[in-house]
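Annex B. Sample input.
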Amino acid sequence: MRPDRIAFLKLLDRILGKVAASLFLPSRNSKRVPSTLKQVLFIRPGGIGDAVLLLPAISELKKVYPGAVVDVLAEKRNGSVFSLSPDVARIWRYDNPTELFMVIRNVYDVVIDAEQWHRLSAIVAKMTQAPLSVGYATNERGNLFTHAIPYLQDDYEADSFLHLVEPLTGKLSIDIREPFLVIPGDLTKKVQKLLTMISAKKIVALFPGGSIRERRWGNNRFHLVARDLEKQGYAVIIIGDSSDREAGSEIAADLQNVIDFCGRLSLVETAAVLKESSLLITGDSGMMHIGFGVGIKTLSLFGPGIEKKWAPRGPAHVVMNKHLPCSPCTKFGYTPRCKINAECMKRISAEEVLEKALEMLEG
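Annex B, continued. Sample output.
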Protein backbone atom coordinates (compact mmCIF):
# COMPACT_ATOMS: atom_id res chain seq x y z
CA MET A 1 0.00 0.00 0.00
CA ARG A 2 1.28 3.45 -0.89
CA PRO A 3 2.55 5.55 2.09
CA ASP A 4 0.11 8.38 1.29
CA ARG A 5 -2.83 5.97 1.40
CA ILE A 6 -1.66 4.50 4.70
CA ALA A 7 -1.37 8.02 6.14
CA PHE A 8 -4.90 8.81 4.91
CA LEU A 9 -6.34 5.67 6.55
CA LYS A 10 -4.62 6.51 9.84
CA LEU A 11 -6.04 10.03 9.69
CA LEU A 12 -9.50 8.64 8.91
CA ASP A 13 -9.25 6.30 11.87
CA ARG A 14 -8.13 9.07 14.20
CA ILE A 15 -10.98 11.38 13.19
CA LEU A 16 -13.88 9.08 12.32
CA GLY A 17 -12.83 5.89 14.08
CA LYS A 18 -12.94 7.45 17.53
CA VAL A 19 -16.39 8.92 16.90
CA ALA A 20 -17.73 5.71 15.35
CA ALA A 21 -16.40 3.56 18.18
CA SER A 22 -18.25 5.71 20.72
CA LEU A 23 -21.59 5.06 18.96
CA PHE A 24 -21.61 1.37 19.88
CA LEU A 25 -22.72 0.11 23.24
CA PRO A 26 -19.85 -1.52 25.17
CA SER A 27 -19.63 -5.31 24.85
CA ARG A 28 -19.85 -7.36 28.00
CA ASN A 29 -17.74 -10.38 28.90
CA SER A 30 -20.79 -12.54 29.60
CA LYS A 31 -20.47 -15.26 26.96
CA ARG A 32 -19.05 -18.62 27.93
CA VAL A 33 -16.43 -20.06 25.61
CA PRO A 34 -17.94 -23.10 23.84
CA SER A 35 -16.27 -26.50 23.77
CA THR A 36 -16.26 -26.42 19.97
CA LEU A 37 -15.81 -23.66 17.43
CA LYS A 38 -16.98 -23.96 13.84
CA GLN A 39 -16.13 -20.61 12.26
CA VAL A 40 -13.37 -18.23 13.42
CA LEU A 41 -12.33 -14.90 11.92
CA PHE A 42 -8.97 -13.21 12.53
CA ILE A 43 -8.69 -9.58 11.47
CA ARG A 44 -5.16 -8.47 10.57
CA PRO A 45 -4.82 -5.35 8.46
CA GLY A 46 -1.39 -3.76 8.19
CA GLY A 47 2.09 -4.95 7.45
CA ILE A 48 3.78 -8.21 6.56
CA GLY A 49 5.58 -8.66 9.88
CA ASP A 50 2.38 -8.56 11.95
CA ALA A 51 0.84 -11.14 9.63
CA VAL A 52 3.80 -13.51 10.00
CA LEU A 53 3.90 -13.24 13.79
CA LEU A 54 0.15 -13.85 14.06
CA LEU A 55 0.46 -17.32 12.49
CA PRO A 56 1.75 -19.11 15.64
CA ALA A 57 -1.34 -17.88 17.52
CA ILE A 58 -3.60 -19.23 14.77
CA SER A 59 -1.74 -22.54 14.96
CA GLU A 60 -2.24 -22.77 18.74
CA LEU A 61 -5.96 -22.08 18.35
CA LYS A 62 -6.24 -24.86 15.75
CA LYS A 63 -4.53 -27.31 18.11
CA VAL A 64 -7.31 -26.75 20.66
CA TYR A 65 -10.11 -26.53 18.07
CA PRO A 66 -8.93 -28.72 15.17
CA GLY A 67 -12.37 -28.66 13.54
CA ALA A 68 -12.59 -24.88 13.37
CA VAL A 69 -12.53 -23.20 9.96
CA VAL A 70 -10.29 -20.14 10.19
CA ASP A 71 -10.82 -17.11 7.96
CA VAL A 72 -8.49 -14.11 7.89
CA LEU A 73 -9.48 -10.57 6.92
CA ALA A 74 -6.24 -8.98 5.73
CA GLU A 75 -5.06 -6.45 3.13
CA LYS A 76 -3.53 -6.73 -0.32
CA ARG A 77 -0.06 -5.98 1.06
CA ASN A 78 -0.05 -8.75 3.69
CA GLY A 79 -2.78 -11.19 2.67
CA SER A 80 -0.55 -13.63 0.80
CA VAL A 81 1.40 -14.32 4.02
CA PHE A 82 -1.59 -16.32 5.27
CA SER A 83 -1.43 -18.58 2.20
CA LEU A 84 1.78 -19.94 3.76
CA SER A 85 -0.19 -21.44 6.66
CA PRO A 86 -2.14 -24.72 6.38
CA ASP A 87 -4.33 -23.52 9.27
CA VAL A 88 -5.99 -20.72 7.27
CA ALA A 89 -8.94 -21.74 5.11
CA ARG A 90 -9.92 -18.44 3.45
CA ILE A 91 -8.31 -15.04 3.03
CA TRP A 92 -10.52 -11.99 2.63
CA ARG A 93 -9.46 -8.47 1.66
CA TYR A 94 -10.03 -5.68 4.19
CA ASP A 95 -9.35 -3.10 1.45
CA ASN A 96 -11.85 -4.68 -0.96
CA PRO A 97 -15.34 -3.28 -0.14
CA THR A 98 -17.16 -6.29 -1.62
CA GLU A 99 -15.15 -8.81 0.40
CA LEU A 100 -15.36 -6.68 3.54
CA PHE A 101 -19.16 -6.58 3.23
CA MET A 102 -19.27 -10.37 2.74
CA VAL A 103 -17.19 -10.93 5.88
CA ILE A 104 -19.48 -8.72 7.94
CA ARG A 105 -22.44 -10.80 6.75
CA ASN A 106 -20.76 -14.15 7.47
CA VAL A 107 -21.60 -16.02 10.67
CA TYR A 108 -18.66 -16.51 13.04
CA ASP A 109 -18.49 -18.05 16.51
CA VAL A 110 -15.64 -15.74 17.44
CA VAL A 111 -13.84 -12.78 15.87
CA ILE A 112 -10.26 -11.98 16.95
CA ASP A 113 -9.00 -8.53 15.99
CA ALA A 114 -5.18 -8.51 15.93
CA GLU A 115 -4.86 -4.78 15.14
CA GLN A 116 -3.03 -3.06 18.01
CA TRP A 117 -4.31 0.50 17.95
CA HIS A 118 -6.61 1.66 15.16
CA ARG A 119 -10.33 1.52 15.77
CA LEU A 120 -11.85 0.68 12.38
CA SER A 121 -10.98 -3.02 12.59
CA ALA A 122 -12.62 -3.18 16.04
CA ILE A 123 -15.75 -1.65 14.52
CA VAL A 124 -15.70 -4.33 11.82
CA ALA A 125 -15.40 -7.00 14.52
CA LYS A 126 -18.40 -5.50 16.29
CA MET A 127 -20.43 -5.35 13.07
CA THR A 128 -20.06 -9.10 12.49
CA GLN A 129 -22.25 -9.59 15.59
CA ALA A 130 -20.19 -12.60 16.62
CA PRO A 131 -21.15 -13.76 20.14
CA LEU A 132 -17.47 -13.72 21.16
CA SER A 133 -14.94 -11.07 20.17
CA VAL A 134 -11.37 -10.51 21.30
CA GLY A 135 -9.07 -7.53 20.78
CA TYR A 136 -6.61 -5.16 22.38
CA ALA A 137 -7.82 -2.56 24.90
CA THR A 138 -5.38 0.16 23.80
CA ASN A 139 -8.04 2.90 23.61
CA GLU A 140 -11.84 3.10 23.38
CA ARG A 141 -11.68 0.18 20.92
CA GLY A 142 -11.50 -2.09 23.97
CA ASN A 143 -15.18 -1.39 24.70
CA LEU A 144 -16.18 -3.15 21.49
CA PHE A 145 -14.97 -6.63 22.51
CA THR A 146 -16.40 -9.24 24.84
CA HIS A 147 -12.81 -10.02 25.82
CA ALA A 148 -10.51 -6.98 25.92
CA ILE A 149 -6.82 -7.88 26.21
CA PRO A 150 -4.06 -5.60 27.59
CA TYR A 151 -1.30 -4.73 25.14
CA LEU A 152 2.26 -4.22 26.41
CA GLN A 153 5.10 -2.57 24.51
CA ASP A 154 7.60 -4.81 26.33
CA ASP A 155 6.11 -8.08 25.06
CA TYR A 156 7.56 -9.84 22.02
CA GLU A 157 4.89 -9.29 19.38
CA ALA A 158 4.33 -12.99 18.69
CA ASP A 159 3.63 -13.40 22.42
CA SER A 160 1.21 -10.45 22.28
CA PHE A 161 -0.74 -12.27 19.56
CA LEU A 162 -0.74 -15.48 21.62
CA HIS A 163 -2.47 -13.53 24.41
CA LEU A 164 -5.36 -12.87 22.01
CA VAL A 165 -6.27 -16.56 21.77
CA GLU A 166 -5.82 -17.33 25.47
CA PRO A 167 -9.50 -16.64 26.32
CA LEU A 168 -10.21 -19.63 24.04
CA THR A 169 -7.18 -21.87 24.62
CA GLY A 170 -6.20 -21.11 28.18
CA LYS A 171 -2.81 -19.73 29.21
CA LEU A 172 -0.07 -20.34 26.64
CA SER A 173 3.66 -20.47 27.24
CA ILE A 174 5.47 -21.68 24.14
CA ASP A 175 8.73 -21.16 22.34
CA ILE A 176 7.95 -20.45 18.71
CA ARG A 177 9.64 -23.12 16.66
CA GLU A 178 10.67 -22.15 13.19
CA PRO A 179 10.03 -22.84 10.41
CA PHE A 180 6.31 -22.17 10.71
CA LEU A 181 5.77 -20.81 7.21
CA VAL A 182 5.02 -23.66 4.79
CA ILE A 183 6.28 -23.31 1.22
CA PRO A 184 4.22 -25.33 -1.30
CA GLY A 185 6.22 -28.19 -2.81
CA ASP A 186 5.70 -27.12 -6.42
CA LEU A 187 6.94 -23.63 -5.62
CA THR A 188 10.02 -25.04 -3.89
CA LYS A 189 10.89 -26.99 -7.04
CA LYS A 190 10.34 -23.89 -9.20
CA VAL A 191 12.65 -21.79 -7.03
CA GLN A 192 15.33 -24.47 -6.84
CA LYS A 193 15.32 -24.58 -10.63
CA LEU A 194 15.55 -20.79 -10.73
CA LEU A 195 18.62 -20.88 -8.48
CA THR A 196 20.49 -23.60 -10.38
CA MET A 197 22.54 -20.82 -11.98
CA ILE A 198 24.17 -20.24 -8.60
CA SER A 199 27.27 -22.33 -8.03
CA ALA A 200 28.48 -20.71 -4.80
CA LYS A 201 28.71 -22.66 -1.55
CA LYS A 202 25.98 -20.62 0.15
CA ILE A 203 23.43 -17.94 -0.71
CA VAL A 204 23.09 -14.72 1.29
CA ALA A 205 19.93 -12.66 0.86
CA LEU A 206 19.89 -8.89 1.29
CA PHE A 207 16.75 -6.84 1.82
CA PRO A 208 17.45 -3.08 1.54
CA GLY A 209 13.84 -1.91 1.86
CA GLY A 210 11.76 -0.75 4.77
CA SER A 211 8.35 0.73 5.41
CA ILE A 212 9.92 4.03 6.48
CA ARG A 213 13.11 5.82 5.44
CA GLU A 214 14.60 5.79 8.94
CA ARG A 215 14.77 1.97 9.00
CA ARG A 216 16.78 1.65 5.80
CA TRP A 217 20.46 1.01 6.27
CA GLY A 218 21.60 2.48 2.95
CA ASN A 219 22.26 1.07 -0.53
CA ASN A 220 25.96 1.96 -0.42
CA ARG A 221 26.53 -0.09 2.73
CA PHE A 222 24.62 -3.05 1.31
CA HIS A 223 26.75 -2.77 -1.84
CA LEU A 224 29.96 -2.98 0.18
CA VAL A 225 28.71 -6.05 2.04
CA ALA A 226 27.59 -7.71 -1.21
CA ARG A 227 30.95 -6.98 -2.83
CA ASP A 228 32.94 -8.49 0.02
CA LEU A 229 30.66 -11.52 0.35
CA GLU A 230 31.18 -12.12 -3.35
CA LYS A 231 34.95 -12.00 -2.82
CA GLN A 232 34.55 -14.63 -0.09
CA GLY A 233 32.85 -16.99 -2.54
CA TYR A 234 29.24 -16.46 -1.51
CA ALA A 235 26.36 -15.80 -3.88
CA VAL A 236 24.20 -12.80 -3.05
CA ILE A 237 20.57 -12.27 -3.92
CA ILE A 238 18.73 -8.99 -3.42
CA ILE A 239 15.03 -9.22 -2.63
CA GLY A 240 12.31 -6.59 -2.55
CA ASP A 241 9.20 -5.40 -4.33
CA SER A 242 8.92 -2.97 -7.23
CA SER A 243 9.61 0.00 -4.94
CA ASP A 244 13.06 -1.48 -4.21
CA ARG A 245 14.20 -1.74 -7.84
CA GLU A 246 16.45 1.30 -7.67
CA ALA A 247 18.03 0.01 -4.48
CA GLY A 248 18.58 -3.40 -6.04
CA SER A 249 20.28 -1.90 -9.09
CA GLU A 250 22.61 0.22 -6.96
CA ILE A 251 23.59 -2.68 -4.73
CA ALA A 252 24.23 -5.08 -7.62
CA ALA A 253 26.14 -2.56 -9.74
CA ASP A 254 29.42 -4.01 -11.17
CA LEU A 255 29.07 -7.27 -9.20
CA GLN A 256 29.16 -10.58 -11.05
CA ASN A 257 27.76 -13.11 -8.58
CA VAL A 258 24.84 -11.00 -7.37
CA ILE A 259 21.25 -11.58 -8.56
CA ASP A 260 18.75 -8.74 -8.23
CA PHE A 261 15.23 -10.09 -7.70
CA CYS A 262 13.65 -6.76 -6.69
CA GLY A 263 10.25 -6.41 -8.29
CA ARG A 264 10.53 -9.81 -10.01
CA LEU A 265 9.01 -12.11 -7.38
CA SER A 266 5.72 -12.27 -5.51
CA LEU A 267 5.80 -12.30 -1.72
CA VAL A 268 5.24 -16.07 -1.64
CA GLU A 269 7.99 -16.62 -4.24
CA THR A 270 10.31 -14.41 -2.19
CA ALA A 271 9.60 -16.57 0.87
CA ALA A 272 10.49 -19.66 -1.19
CA VAL A 273 13.77 -18.06 -2.33
CA LEU A 274 14.63 -17.14 1.25
CA LYS A 275 14.04 -20.75 2.29
CA GLU A 276 16.92 -21.74 -0.01
CA SER A 277 19.25 -19.10 1.49
CA SER A 278 21.65 -19.51 4.39
CA LEU A 279 21.37 -15.99 5.80
CA LEU A 280 19.24 -12.88 5.47
CA ILE A 281 20.69 -9.44 6.18
CA THR A 282 17.95 -6.87 6.64
CA GLY A 283 16.71 -3.90 8.55
CA ASP A 284 13.72 -4.08 10.90
CA SER A 285 11.17 -5.16 8.29
CA GLY A 286 8.44 -7.56 7.31
CA MET A 287 11.02 -9.48 5.28
CA MET A 288 12.97 -10.04 8.51
CA HIS A 289 9.95 -11.92 9.88
CA ILE A 290 9.59 -13.91 6.64
CA GLY A 291 13.21 -15.04 7.07
CA PHE A 292 12.47 -16.00 10.66
CA GLY A 293 9.31 -17.83 9.61
CA VAL A 294 11.01 -19.96 6.94
CA GLY A 295 13.73 -20.97 9.40
CA ILE A 296 16.92 -19.36 8.09
CA LYS A 297 19.48 -17.32 10.00
CA THR A 298 18.83 -13.57 10.18
CA LEU A 299 21.13 -10.63 10.84
CA SER A 300 18.86 -7.69 11.67
CA LEU A 301 19.85 -4.02 11.83
CA PHE A 302 17.82 -2.10 14.39
CA GLY A 303 17.55 1.59 15.24
CA PRO A 304 14.10 3.23 15.40
CA GLY A 305 12.22 -0.01 16.12
CA ILE A 306 11.75 -1.71 19.48
CA GLU A 307 14.16 -4.64 19.44
CA LYS A 308 12.59 -6.35 22.43
CA LYS A 309 9.20 -6.38 20.72
CA TRP A 310 10.12 -7.12 17.11
CA ALA A 311 13.53 -8.80 16.77
CA PRO A 312 13.51 -12.55 15.96
CA ARG A 313 14.21 -14.84 18.90
CA GLY A 314 16.67 -17.73 19.14
CA PRO A 315 20.35 -18.55 18.64
CA ALA A 316 20.07 -18.42 14.83
CA HIS A 317 19.19 -14.72 14.92
CA VAL A 318 21.52 -11.81 15.62
CA VAL A 319 20.59 -8.15 16.10
CA MET A 320 22.94 -5.21 15.62
CA ASN A 321 21.78 -2.08 17.45
CA LYS A 322 23.77 0.98 18.58
CA HIS A 323 21.19 1.84 21.27
CA LEU A 324 21.40 5.61 20.90
CA PRO A 325 19.68 7.60 23.67
CA CYS A 326 16.87 8.58 21.28
CA SER A 327 16.22 5.05 20.10
CA PRO A 328 13.88 3.28 19.85
CA CYS A 329 11.48 5.99 18.79
CA THR A 330 8.71 3.98 17.10
CA LYS A 331 5.47 3.36 18.96
CA PHE A 332 2.26 1.76 17.67
CA GLY A 333 3.66 1.80 14.16
CA TYR A 334 4.43 5.53 14.16
CA THR A 335 8.00 6.81 13.81
CA PRO A 336 8.56 10.58 14.18
CA ARG A 337 10.69 12.28 11.56
CA CYS A 338 14.30 11.92 12.68
CA LYS A 339 16.16 15.16 13.44
CA ILE A 340 19.60 13.52 13.12
CA ASN A 341 18.94 11.65 9.86
CA ALA A 342 18.73 8.13 11.32
CA GLU A 343 22.14 8.25 12.96
CA CYS A 344 21.24 5.04 14.81
CA MET A 345 21.37 3.16 11.50
CA LYS A 346 24.34 5.01 10.04
CA ARG A 347 26.56 4.02 12.95
CA ILE A 348 26.25 0.35 12.01
CA SER A 349 29.21 -0.04 9.67
CA ALA A 350 29.50 -2.29 6.64
CA GLU A 351 32.68 -3.77 8.12
CA GLU A 352 31.03 -4.99 11.31
CA VAL A 353 28.01 -6.35 9.43
CA LEU A 354 30.30 -8.30 7.10
CA GLU A 355 32.31 -9.65 10.04
CA LYS A 356 29.17 -10.82 11.85
CA ALA A 357 27.68 -12.28 8.63
CA LEU A 358 30.82 -14.33 7.94
CA GLU A 359 30.83 -15.54 11.53
CA MET A 360 27.22 -16.71 11.18
CA LEU A 361 27.81 -18.32 7.79
CA GLU A 362 30.95 -20.16 8.79
CA GLY A 363 29.69 -21.10 12.24
